[in-house]
Specification:
Strand content: under 5%
Organism: uncultured Anaerotruncus sp
Helix content: over 70%
Number of helices: 10
Protein name: EcsC protein family protein
Largest sheet: none
Pfam families: EcsC
InterPro entries: EcsC
Length: about 260
């Protein structure tokens, strides 16, 4: 008679993670464009896409170069690092699933708060007909959320390798089709070996993430530039903040668990 091998907490959490990861990818692969985008196609200026590309690229470059300190003023890095150490210690002592899942629970709570803030900001600016000027604010809030998620799992965000990981997360979360699958594979490869690709150029990766974001938000930012009606477009700041945070939570969790396997 054979014996059943009981799963360890890490193995159990890894299995749960893979299920959530497949669901997220499948949902993005099956995504269909909302009806309102089709109706707005003829009204969107031809040059708006390139304008958005440039705006997001500049926002990322500026925050990476000079703005990380400003972003950190919106939360206590020391406190988040201490809370991570407490969770690590609890896991070391207890070695149970509840302690392991506490990392993801903390991330969900943080992301929910940041999503609400992003939504309030987007709606407010949309009501005033402010679309393009919202991009630096949205980008700052987005990176704030991702920085906090990284700290909750014990990772930093200043190193070139960490910025690469963050930019890939953003690109993957708003992509679909082959681009999504390729980006997801790049993330898993980095999680496995922690190395930058040969010939990596941060500027090009910033442009790739910016282009993915601008393509997804094109019609919404156009709509957000219309007073009052723009509040509807502003709502989607929260929608995409939540979407990117969900994907980031999955990938940082995968990275953390793989380090413990």
């Amino acid at each position: 008679m054979g014996f059943f091998t009981r799963e360890s907490p890490v193995e159990k959490e890894w299995r749960r993670l893979l299920i959530e990861e497949r669901r997220f990818l499948q949902k993005r692969l099956e995504k269909k464009s909302p009806l309102f985008q089709e109706k707005l196609k003829e009204k969107v200026p031809p040059k708006l896409q390139s304008t958005l590309d440039t705006a997001f690229s500049k926002a990322f470059a500026l925050i990476f170069e000079k703005g990380t300190g400003l972003v950190e003023k919106t939360y206590s890095r020391q406190k988040l690092e201490q809370e991570y150490q407490v969770r690590q210690y609890a896991l070391k002592i207890k070695q149970d699933s509840k302690s392991l899942r506490s990392f993801s629970k903390t991330v969900r709570n943080t992301s929910a708060k940041n999503t609400l803030l992003s939504g309030a900001s987007g709606i407010g600016m949309g009501a005033l007909g402010i679309g393009l000027p919202d991009i630096p604010i949205f980008t700052g809030m987005l990176l704030k959320n991702l920085y906090e998620i990284a700290l909750h799992f014990g990772y930093g965000y200043e190193a070139k390798e960490e910025r690469y990981f963050i930019l890939l997360l953003i690109q993957g979360a708003v992509s679909n089709g082959e681009t999504l699958l390729e980006t997801d594979q790049k993330l898993n490869q980095f999680i496995h070996d922690g190395k930058l690709p040969d010939g990596y150029e941060e500027k090009k990766q910033i442009e790739a993430a910016a282009k993915a974001l601008s393509k997804e938000l094109l019609y919404l930012k156009f709509l957000q530039g219309v007073p009052l009606v723009g509040a509807v477009g502003g709502v989607y700041d929260a929608v995409y903040m939540k979407q990117i945070a969900a994907y980031a939570g999955i990938k940082y969790r995968r990275r953390y668990l793989q380090g413990r396997k």
